[in-house]
Amino acid sequence: MIEKWHEKSNGIAFKIIFALVSLSFVLAGVGTGFIGVNTSAVKVNGKEISQREFSDAKNRQQQTMANQMGSQFWDLMDDPKFAAEFDQSVLNNLINDELLRQYIDELKLGVSVDQIKSEIVHSSYFQNNGKFDNNLYQQTLRNAGLNADGYAQIVGQGILFSQMEEGVLGTNFNVPAQEETLAKLLFQKRQVRLASYSLANEVKKQTASQEELQAFYDKHKAQLVLPEQFVVEYVTLSPKQVENKVQITDEQIATYYEANKAQYVTKSESQLAHIQVANEKEAQAIEQQLKSGTDFATLAKEKSLDKLSATKGGDLGWAKAGTFPTEFEKAANALQVGQVSQPVKMGNEYHIIKVLDRKPETALPLEKVKENIVNTLRQELVGAEYSTVTRDMATSAYENAGSLEAVAKVADVEVQTTPMFTRETLPEALKSDSVTKVLFEGDLAQSGQNSEALEVGNENASRTMFLRVKQYQPQREKTFDEAKSEVEAMVKREKAETALLAQAEAQVKALSEGKNEVTFGGAQTLVYVQAQAEQPAFAKAVFAMPKPTDKPTFSVAHNAQGDVLLVALDKVEDGSLSEFKPLQAQFSEANRTTLRADLINNLRERASIDVNEEFMQQLNSTAQ
Hints:
- It is found in: Cell inner membrane.
- This is Periplasmic chaperone PpiD.
- GO terms for molecular function: peptidyl-prolyl cis-trans isomerase activity.
- Keywords: Cell inner membrane, Cell membrane, Chaperone, Isomerase, Membrane, Rotamase, Transmembrane, Transmembrane helix.
- Helix 3 packs across helix 4, helix 6 crosses helix 8 and helix 17 runs antiparallel to helix 18.
- The protein folds into four domains: 145 residues, Triger factor/SurA peptide-binding fold, CATH 1.10.4030; 125 residues, Chitinase A, domain 3 (Roll); 124 residues; 99 residues, Chitinase A, domain 3, CATH 3.10.50.
- It is of the alpha+beta class.
- It has 26 helices and 21 strands.
């Protein structure tokens, strides 16, 4: 199989795929099965990927796409075909992840506790002033809803994945001859001289008869169109515009404070330490040592399996209520400061807990939280007022479907009118996915009726808009008179291009016969990779020219402005390996992309993949 990968690694189609396969299997959630006959989304070599796992993965991917594309993504998801393709891509990723997991098991790759510990301790996420910070580590895990064991599993899987990459995909190599060939072609230099024939100047010399214009128009009138045009009336309202209708009294503030006192307290905190051991016998032995007067911190350093807290005598740092598992906190809450618990069983391990210090819950006075309450009340009251006004506007828009005047009156705002515009000249005020969808895809343009309430703007500057099309002109072919100036320009340009090309080709023939009647500019050197990026059409023409021998070769090309260029190619020099070296890493990564894609394809070919078609069809029918 390794040999097969190497054979395929030169295919350019494979070189982009590796970047599309991520470490998602490390982060994939572990789903719980539904009760029923078939709770799977797919079975991969007998291993079930549950419908819950699929739903979780789909939700994560939807959230990612929505963050990137905004409401446009949800518009795409309204298309059943797109939704089905999206679901299939989620399923394919889950299958690929599971195949990679199973392949890692086949390779019998392993990871030690010390490797995991080292990876965590040296992670930049938990560094403070260049050193591992246990409090930062514990807080980060708590914020992520993870415990130390769960995070260690994630880190361990990441290490295993890296081992697979280095051990298998790292077998890829580039043959020196391949790199030499790439260097020669990509960094090939061509020394050219150019003579330019201005298209703009030639256009000025051209004339066009009435018959020529009419003939061109008759041939191309289907492409000579006036796009649909609109004049739109609209009314907008933002939450800020209703703020002046909201007044907050001291009585409201006091009432809110009394009703929500539980929110305005400094919660109790405990500084806890623990000793974690593997079984009850060890826990009881440590308990006896503590009763005999042995120092808790000393025993934690010597005995605790939680090596990260053990370095600090078992200290877990300060934590608010609800941070630790229920059994752990229940035992800690029963202790006074300085007391040590009996062994507490959690899972297959035992913990001995000590309360190092404790801060009680304290109520905050109204004066200290008044500003916060005012802001909260204002936000709630403005939101309620805004909802009321926009709801009344929507009612008015429905009851007075052919006018926005009554809608504007409800909100005490003005109806605004746009100048005439096309899809390409959409006014700034209307640039919103919800507006363009209803304006260009629905029947609003022809009906002249009011739209429903449209949410426009972003999360920080949301507005509600109602609009109606006051004037509409559908797309149509231009008449000859309307298109005449455009047609004349096209005819003259076409004739100018033909004349210049004929002139340049005649010059090429004369030059090839040794008649030099052309004044070329100074020599300039073009490098393929740079020229291809900056002027692809021109580069294609120049680098397709035959190499010169004892005399230059000549050809015709065009620049981006449409000017005709007469090209004299004087010299060709191949690129060197030294020029290729800066790109070596990129090409190596591209090869790894190829190999990984081929690995997944190979695993798929050998795998038993049983998709729950009924489940997938249900998803498709829901999308429709």
